[in-house]
Amino acid sequence: MIWTGREFIITGTRVSCRHLMKNTFLASVIVVICQLMLATNVSAESIDQLVLSMSQKLADLNSLNESIVRGKLRVRLCQYCHGKDGNSVKNEIPNLAQQNPVYLLTQFEYFRTNQRTNTVMNRLAKGLSREERINIALYYASQEVKVDKTAMKTDLASINRGSRIYNKTCVNCHGKKGYGERTLPRIAGQKFEFLSKTLTAYKNKEAVRPDSPMVGVSSGLSEEDILSLANYVSQIN
Ligand code: HEC
Ligand code: HEC
Questions:
Q1: Looking at the structure, do residues 53 and 114 belong to the same domain, yes or no?
Q2: Quick check: pTM over 0.90?
Q3: Ligand 2 centroid from CA 214, angstroms
Q4: Tens digits of per-residue pLDDT, 35-90?
Q5: Which of 18, 48, 162, 184 has the most beta carbons within 10 angstroms of its beta carbon?
Q6: 32 CA to centre of ligand 2 in angstroms
Q7: Residue bearing the CA closest to ligand 2, atom 41
Q8: Which atom of ligand 2 is nearest to the CA of 212?
Q9: Is the domain of 135 the same as that of 168?
């Protein structure tokens, strides 16, 4: 649909405003289309804008350090679950330490807009300012993840099996060492329970993150594959 200044051109047909006024139905359809286009543009722009602002801070050591200090002061709301240093306090809650900052920020936006659903996170994400969201993401990303190596001693066969599946199915997106990049999450050193719970949710197409490429990736995994992958991935660092 193109607006020439005097008339709309809809798929090659010219529609003047006089025509529109006579045809109120068509006019209301166009208004709805315009509103939808504006709404999608606004949210798509603001997330890019936000990532751009964060990238500018990342590129300048002084403003990066300032952001990290400010972020640390704002994690009081988060530390109860994700830990003060981003190593979460419970196995089913994800570590945020050493996670890619672009991933942290974009997922937080998805919680804000309910594109990703979790009751607590949806509520919390709406209460922070733009600067706070950027600073918290930079702070947690700057912390070191503490890898739990206990599985290594107990389940070597499962870890080896997980490693084989990982190198066949996951490596292209999450990288050789599981570090990911930008919007691809780091999964190396992530909590075992969170990994197995999340992979199972993707596999069962639970409506938590319905548009994720992970839904297709996980559909062919068996329960044993998921446990082996979680064993392997949780102890890489
Ligand atoms: C009451 C516990 C709780 C609190 C408090 C909390 N979170 Fe979360 N958070 C969770 C859980 C649980 C998940 C995983 C949701 C899921 O399974 O999809 C999560 C997921 C996330 C994710 C996505 C991580 C990933 O690996 O996909 C980010 C980012 C995040 N939280 C940031 C924050 C920030 C920032 C705060 C503080 C403002 C916060 N959370 C406070 C429980 C909490
Ligand atoms: C086509 C690219 C692609 C492939 C292949 C892929 N992933 Fe993912 N994965 C993603 C993206 C993108 C996300 C980000 C969140 C989302 O979209 O759900 C993600 C998210 C995840 C998460 C959630 C991380 C978090 O912190 O919330 C886990 C766990 C995961 N992937 C594990 C795997 C495993 C294990 C494999 C191999 C069996 C795999 N992925 C293969 C793209 C991929």
A1: yes
A2: no
A3: 5
A4: 444 344 334 458 899 999 999 999 999 999 999 999 999 999 899 999 999 999 99
A5: 162
A6: 35
A7: 170
A8: 17
A9: no
Is ligand 1 within 6 A of the CB of residue 187?
A: no
> Which tens digit of pLDDT belongs to each residue from 140-197?
999 999 998 887 778 999 999 999 999 999 999 999 999 999 999 999 999 999 999 9
The domain of 11 spans 2-35
Task: Provide the 8-state DSSP code for 229.
Answer: H
Pocket of ligand 1 contains residue 89 by CB under 6 Å: no
Place of tokens 């289309």: 33
Cα distance between residue 228 and residue 231, in whole Å: 5
**29: Cβ below 6 Å to ligand 1?**
no
Total domains, the chain: 3
Claim to verify: residue 23 and residue 51 sit in the same structural domain: no
In a shared domain, residues 70 and 102: yes
Q: Which alpha helices (DSSP H) does the chain contain, by range? A: 17-22, 24-58, 61-74, 76-82, 101-112, 119-125, 130-141, 150-154, 156-169, 171-174, 192-203, 214-218, 223-234
Atom of ligand 2 nearest to the CA of 103: 14
Residues 213 and 156 in one domain: yes
